[in-house]
Amino acid sequence: MIITNLIRSLATRYLRTCSFLCRAGVIAWLATSGAQAQPVQTIPDILPMAHKIYSVSHQDMDWQKRHYRIFVAVPHSPQDRQAPVSTLYILDGNAQFPLAVNAVYDYWAKLSVKQSQATSLPLIVGLGYPEEKAYPLQARERDYTYAAPGERFARGGGAADFYEFVQGAVMPYIKTQHPADPGKQILAGHSFGGLFALYVLLNHQDAFDQYVIGSPSLWWGNGAIVTNATLLPGQDPNSENATAALAEQTTSNGDGPGGRFVTILQGEYEENPEADPDMKPERLARMKQRRSPVNARKLDAWLQQRGLDSDFMLVEKSGHGGVIPAVIHAAVSAALKNREQ
Asked: So what's the architecture of 2-338 in CATH?
């Protein structure tokens, strides 16, 4: 599936309505597409108009001597405050929480009065850090990656601990403070955030009902997260028994085929960097050095073979950073729902 007009329209609306700071952050990420591309560290603004539909706050938390900031957007609507709502958990919260809030407002602002009254807005939770940077690089590399041998991966490996923080501290806090539909929990992430979302899917599948995985850093650990995955205890993930058991498990746990709905996104120039008209030889060499034996498209097929309801989206004419608007859109679309359904 190729997303073209959808993403261009979304990006255009951001550029049209965001402040200068928001525009700078989105443009910078849209422009970075190669391996080791560094994002601009300006945190996007939340649109002033978005405060019409959301009350925004944050809560600082400590976990194992590490410091985190949890951003929360609660709908103003009495129906959404009192009735169960879907909850969108988004990684890289410093940068992508504002984009998610803005995207929901962008959607809501185009509805008629009748449509807006029938639409339940999601609770949005951004998993971030108490830093004045959009992407705290060392912290996210530590928290979003799994343990892997080799000096190249020595600064990571904290995914298991970070999952325990999300599951043991953040989600209970959200559930006690706000109404949350236990059957509608969504996790979304991009790059290292996408890798962490994949880690949770493979190791703690029931933690969330839907996963939006954008440009996952499958090169981490030389792709071991897939090649060494154990989806069911004591079973070879490539065996027929494991595949059949996983399919039965996921079907019984969810609302539709495969039980857990997964959306995987990748940019066209990530999949085929030679097609990027702006690609430089040195950047291409770095990307090839980081290539994983499994790419996002193969990951989608791998998950489908194991009984998961997975959908792959190729974002046309986009590199690594250019996938972010598509990730935000996919996550927000998953979180929005009609009260009449």
From this structure: 3-Layer(aba) Sandwich (3.40)
